[in-house]
Amino acid sequence: DIQMTQSPSSLSASVGDRVTITCQASQDISKYLNWYQQKPGKAPKLLIYDASNLETGVPSRFSGSGSGTDFTFTISSLQAEDIATYYCQHYDNLPRFGGGTKVEIK
Amino acid sequence: VQLVESGGGLVKPGGSLRLSCAASGFTFSNAWMNWVRQAPGKGLEWVGRIKSKSDGGTTDYAAPVKGRFTISRDDSKNTMYLQMNSLKTEDTAVYYCSIHTIFGVVIDVWGQGTTVTVSS
What pLDDT digit, counting tens, does each position of A13-42 carry? Predict the structure, then answer.
């Protein structure tokens, strides 16, 4: 099984800050990596698919990069409504989620 | 486009439960479908997946549920099922169904979730 290591597990940042989350796969997963946002009591929402493609309707302050084993998710300017937990997910073969990153406002 | 889960509830350890996921608004038969769960206060955990019949209709499962859970689909009813046997307390979670991909394209559609509680 491919393991997905996501870090940090939580972070606190100010509105307007640049926020970066990393996800590392235990083996090469090419571009088969999604990023989700989940707010309490809600189903996850897809933000980025295939490592770097912005889902339709998602604000452009969200972005993703990487391929192979190392991936990065960035919020260029954190907004209050971005408070949530973010997950990476390898979706090919046997899918696996990262452990999640809880983003809070400082 | 909608997915609606049903069938959750309270069950004793060792018991069984069958969840359903009713799909509408898209060609269900073309979709690879997932079950994903989230234990209270924990992260997302992929449970399993079923491919479209045209891609073999095969299933894959996460290690913690393999041999106990079975995913099936009835394309005539636009419904996917999760048969859960030999339930353990650690299976307590909100269970979501979601579209995995349609023709290899990631599609973001999730159900509202159904709660399964395994407790004596």
Answer: 999 999 999 999 999 999 999 999 999 999
